[in-house]
Amino acid sequence: MPDSDRGTDPPAPAGSDAPISRINRHIPHPARIYDYLLGGKDNFDADRKAAEALIELSPGTREGVRAHRAFLGRAVRYLADEAGITQFLDIGTGIPTQDNTHTIAQRAVPAARVAYVDNDPIVLVHGRALLTGDPAGMTDMIEADLRQPEKILDDPTVRRVIDFTRPVAVILAGVMHFITDQEDPYGLVEQFKAAVPGGSHLLLSHITLDFADQVRREDFTKPYDNSSAPMVPRRHDETLRFFAGWDLVDPGLVEVVTWRPDPVDDREPIPGGHAWAYGGVAIKPVISLAHAEAHGP
C-alpha cells in the first residue's frame, strides 16, 4: 500500500452523508496532525507532511505533544480524584488514543459521564471506540465546532449526558490556539463558562512561543496555513485571559510539564527542555444566594 494511502477509509454508500464521506484527506487537519505526532495511524499524507514540517522546525515537537497529552491525563485525574468532578464536556477531543478523558475519569469514578465534541468527521468515525467506558457511567460523542457554543450546549446528546445544574469540567485542551482573534476566542470560552454552575472547572491548554525566542511566529504557524484551521500561539498573559473570573488551582497557569508532574516520569526528555504549551485548571466561584441578592444582577 502506498504511504500516501495509509489512513484511507472504505468508501461510503452512494449519496451518503455519513462522516466518512466528508473526510478530506488532502487538507491537513489539526486532529490528524496531532494523531500522527502521538504515533497514531489515523492520518493522511497531507497531515504527515505538516507534522514533519513542525518537527523540522522544532525537533522536540513530538515529545512536546506527548507532554501536552500527559498534562491532560494528570489534570483529568485531579478533577475526578481530588476535585470530585463527575461530568466532563471535552471539546476538541481529537482522534481516540490511549487514556482518553472517560478512561481516566471512570478509573477514579466509575459513574463519571463524558460528552466528547469534535469537528473532524474522522474523529466521529473512530468515536465508537470511546463508547466502551465503565457501564456505571455514560460516554457519548457529537460532531460540532466549538465556534458554535449554542449548538453544543443545546445538543440533545450533550444534554442527555451532562446535567448543567451540577458542576461540570469543561475541557479545552490544545484547541483554542486554532481559533483566530477574529473568531473571538475569549467570547467563545465565556459562553461555555457561563453555561455551567459554580463549582465547575475549566481545563485549558494552549500553544505558546514564550519558550522559543529563536523561532519566528510565521515559521512556526506556516505548516498550518493550508490546514482546516490556522495556528495562533499566544503569550502567557493572553492565555491567562481565558480563565478570567475563575480561581486557578495550584500551581496556576504554567508550562504543561510543570503542572503537578508525576513523581516518576519515564517519558523521553524534550529536546530543548520545553513543551511550548501552557496548561491550567480553574474553578468557578460558588456565589451564595445572599451574596447575589446583596450585589444585584
Automatic annotation (TrEMBL):
Region (Disordered): 1-23
EC number assigned by the record: 2.1.1.-
Gene Ontology process terms (BP): methylation
Single GO MF descriptor: methyltransferase activity
Pfam families for the chain: Methyltransf_19
Keyword set, alphabetical order: Methyltransferase, Transferase
Record's protein name: SAM-dependent methyltransferase
Organism annotation: Nonomuraea harbinensis
